[in-house]
Amino acid sequence: MYSKRTEIINKSGLHARPGSAFVREAKKFACDITLTKLDEGGSPVKSCSAKSIALIMAMMIPKGTRVELSAEGEDAVNAVDTLVALIDSGLNDI
Prior knowledge:
By secondary structure, the protein is an alpha+beta fold. It has helices at residues 16-26, 53-58, 76-88; strands at 2-7, 32-38, 44-49, 66-72.
């Protein structure tokens, strides 16, 4: 398993349009990818598949939320690194 942590920086958080862009990118990878919402101390709060817009929207991830992306499978490192870079770019919503 490979994982990385980052912070949601775009103004609307991981909802609607930015969330859809995130899920579209996640679905390009064969591995299983998990998105975990973290509390202020860095402990896991909720997790879901990074390939489900419905589950991601239900987690309610606003700007400033710390998240962890983890993946297992043949392209896990590339998947996590790509998705973290997408989040760090602001998902075209800064």
